Amino acid sequence: MYLQCTVVYFLVCVVAFSGAEILIRGTETARVGSQARLQCIARDYDNQPRKISWFHNGRLVLKSSRNTITELFNENKNGYTLSELQIPEVRKGDAGRYVCKTDKKHQASLYLTVN
Length: 115
What we know:
This protein is an all-beta fold. It has strands spanning 2-7, 11-17, 20-26, 29-30, 36-44, 52-56, 59-61, 68-73, 81-87, 96-102, 107-114. The chain has no helices and eleven strands.
């Protein structure tokens, strides 16, 4: 396993396992009332992930009136699963560690700071 992070416009982290990788990217700092967007892309060359779950400070994030979660499943060879978590109006309580985890138990995380 290895971890590689790069700061471009936002933080991008890739966690790679034997035959699999998971990447999380998105908003690192947001102002109260602004929008935050996090994306998780997972690929497993042997058995493509079918589901990505989101966690905030250890608690499962579900779709609600405060956020949207969309998922795209690519059926191509070496396909991927992409999940996006959007928070249209960030609140102070949205600060913290966000983890995306596949049904294969691979995971990556990103910390959101709210000002």
